[in-house]
Amino acid sequence: MRLENKVALITGGGSGIGAAAAHHMANEGAAVALAGIPAAGVEEQAAALLQEGFKALAIPTDVSDERQVETAVARTVAAFGRLDIAVASAAVQFHDRDHTLHQLDEAVWDQTHAINFRGVFVTCKYAIAQMLEQGDGGSLIIISSVTAMDGGSPNVSYLTGKHGLLGLNQHIGRHYGPHGIRCNCICPGALEKTPNHDIHPDPEKRAARLREAIPLGRPGTPEDIAPWITFLASDEARYANGAHFLVDGGLCA
């Protein structure tokens, strides 16, 4: 029970890595607040956890709206008494429109960064404020991406936002470590389903290409990433701070 008596807020908790993390962390003893949209996603995941006897709360939240994020933190504390862990996982990826920089629609850039970059900033902002008020530290885990490692992805808004999270992670680690607040960043490799997978132009071709490119022979799953989130949130990772961890099946090797 690595996270016994801990309280975690997870954005993007209705699907993918966020949902997998919520279930893994609950199994390790945490009370979990699942924030995200659409509401049906977080409500379904929270209901499943409650049915299994875990402590869970669904908070429909658009992370691009700062007030909604502030409310999500406040509701988490109101329900569970405190906040020990924040997992910033909410993200979008517009495969069909986020490419060809010199022709890119600025609305695609703005919407992607509003969720993937600014949304993480405000999540960390209000989580840190709560942790400082409590005065006994905490742990933040930011979900970046393997795309942050180089310029290869055609999705330029997605790539640049995920790369920016590496700097945000280092800033938090340096400036809030003295307060006992750790921040670490996970860079998942190519997963079976990306954010907005339904609009990928050729998912079958992508899957075949990745099976060839990844030394372990397959794309990853959210369940491959969730244990890393739990570990970094736990006291076992107490000396990890301001670091990023590449979990990609060897793709970048």
- Main sheet, how many strands, which sense, barrel? 7 strands, parallel
Report, as a whole number of angstroms, the end-to-end distance: 33 Å
Basic shape: globular
Strand arrangement across the biggest beta sheet: 3-2-1-4-5-6-7
Short description:
The protein is α/β, with parallel strands linked by helices and 253 residues long. It contains eight helices and seven strands; from the N terminus they run E-H-E-H-E-H-E-H-H-E-H-E-H-H-E. The longest helix is centred in the middle third of the chain and has 21 residues.
Features:
single chain, 8 helices, seven-stranded parallel β-sheet, alpha/beta, 253 residues
Could you characterize what this model shows?
By secondary structure, the protein is of the alpha/beta class. α1 crosses α8. The protein is globular and about 45 Å long. The mean pLDDT is 95.
Write the layout of secondary structure elements.
Layout: E1 7-11, H1 16-27, E2 31-36, H2 39-51, E3 56-60, H3 66-80, E4 85-88, H4 106-116, H5 118-134, E5 138-143, H6 156-176, E6 181-188, H7 203-213, H8 222-233, E7 244-247
Parallel strand pairs: 1-2, 1-4, 2-3, 4-5, 5-6, 6-7
Helix pairs in contact: 1-8, 3-5, 4-6
